[in-house]
Amino acid sequence: MDSYDQEKERGITIFAKHTCVTYNEYKINIIDTPGHADFSGEVERVLGMVNSVLLLVDAQEGPMPQTRFVLSQALKMGLRPIVVLNKIDRPHANPDRALNLTFDLFLELGANDEQLDFPYIYASGFNGYAINQIGDTPKDLSPLFEMIIQKAPAPAGSLELPFLMQAATLTYDDYVGRQACGRVLEGIIRKNDTVTRVDKNGNHTNHKIIRIEGHLGLKEIEIEDAGAGDIVVLSGIPEIEIGDTICDAQHVVQLPPITLAEPTVSVEFLVNTSPFVGRDGKHVTMNKLRDRLQKERRANISLKIEEIPGRDDAIRVCGRGELHLAVLIEAMRREGYELAISKPKVIMKVVDGVEMEPMERVHVEVPENFSGTVIEDLSRRKGEMRSLETSEHGLTTMQFLIPTRGLMGYRNDFLTRTSGLGVLTSIFESFAPWKGEMAGRTRGVMISNSIGKANGYALFNLQERGSLFVKPGDEVYEGMVVGEHARDNDIVVNAIKAKQLTNVRAAGSDENIILTPPRKFTLEQAIDYIADDELVEVTPNYIRLRKTYLTENERKRQAR
Q1: Contact, 18 vs 180, CB < 8 A?
Q2: Confidence band (pLDDT; 50, 70, 90) for 341?
C-alpha cells in the first residue's frame, strides 16, 4: 500500500491509506497507518474511523519501539487490539517470547482487563497464511479474517438517520479538486446529493456531491452511494478542511474537532541567498515558499506554520521531529524549490511557571562491546538509563529517557561510534523540566574562502586536517562548508587552489594524489549535523552546508 515515492525509497509508511476487502459477504475496511512517531498525526486522525486495530508484532524481535505510540493511542480510545504475531516462518522466530513481551507492553501502557485479554493469531505475511495455533497446517489468511469478523465490533450507525461524516484526510484530483475522505457515521450519501459543510468555527456552506469513490483492494472505484460504516472519498466541497463536519442539509450538526498532540521541533525555512541561487530550482522566492507551505498545512494538520515577527525572508515550521520535517523538505526539492534550512530547535513550553522541554524514549541495540561507549555518550547528553539487557548472542538492548535536543546531531556520531552496527530509535514521551545546558558538536568545520571548482591537489592537502564533504570537480563558494575539521575550531581553507606549474621536471617530484571518498549527507543527516551558525542549502540536485555569517570577502563585495 506504500505508493508514495519516499515511502518506497525509505521503506517506511508516511501517510495513512485506506483499502477494502470482501470475505464471505462481509466488507472489511482496512487502514494502514505509519509506525514512526514523527508521523503520529496520521495515526491520531484516522483512529476515530476504526472499531478495532491489528497490532503486527515481529515473532523474532517482539514489539518495536515505534509500536508503543500507536498502541497507546488505540488503548486510550478504548479499542481492543487483535495481536498478529507475524514472520513466524523466520529461522529464529520465537512467537511465545514475542507474545509475552507484547503482554508486558499492554500492562506498561495501562490496558484495562478487557484489553489485556486480547485475541492473537500467528501469521506469515510473506507466505500469505495465518494459523490459530503453532503446528496447524497453513493454508491461507482465512483464520485472520474469521477472527476479525468475530472479535472486531461491527460499525455503529443507522442507515435510517440523516447523513453524517467527518473529514479525516484530504486528497487532490486534477479534475474535481480537493476531496474529503472519512467514514460515514450515519445515513446514506448519494451522488448529486446536497450536503452542508460545517467548519471549525461553525460556519455553514451547502455543496453538491459530484463524485463518490470507495476502495476495492488497492484501487479506488467510483460508486453511486454509500452508507453508515463505509469509508469513502467525496468530491464537490472545494474548501473542505480536516476535521470539518459534512452532514444532511436539513439536519445540521457539528462534530468535535480532531485534536492532535503538539509539535516538538521547529526549523526556519529561509530564502536561499547563496551565489548559486536559481541554478537548480524554479521556485526561489519567499512568496513561492509561503504558498507551498500553506498548501501543505491544509492537508497535514500536524504541521504548524508561523510567521516570524520582523522577518520577511524566513518562516518557521513546527513538526513532530526531524524526519517529519525532512519528508516535507524532500518533497519540496523534488517539486523544484530552492531554500535554506536552519538548525532544528526544540519547542519549549511553560507549565505552572516551570520551563518544560520535550523528552524522548530511546531504544538502543548494540553489540555488547559498544554498550559502554553509548551509555557514556547519552549520559553526557542528559540521558537517564531505564533498562539494560544483554542477550546470549552478545546483543545489548538499552532504553533511555533523554531530552529531544540531546538526540539532535547524535545519530551520525552513534553510527560512527558503533561502527555502523548499532540501531537507535526514539519516540516522544512527554514534557519534563529543562535539564540544563548541553554540549553541542565537538568538531569544527572547514569553510571555503573562494568560489570555483574544487580540485584534487587542494583537497589532497586538506584531507589531513579532517574529513571532506566535496570531491574534485564539485563547485564551491565562499562561506560553504567543505569538510569537518579534526579539532573543535572552524578554519577557512582554499579548496580550489591548483598546483603551480613550472617547466622544470624531476623524476619522483610529483606526488601520487589519493583521496578518501567524501562524506555525503542525506537531508536528515545534514539537518542533524549543522550548528547554530550554519544552514543547509537545499536544491533539487544538491544538499550543501554553509555558514550564516558573511565572510570578509563577501562583506567587501557587498560594500562595493
Answers
A1: no
A2: very high
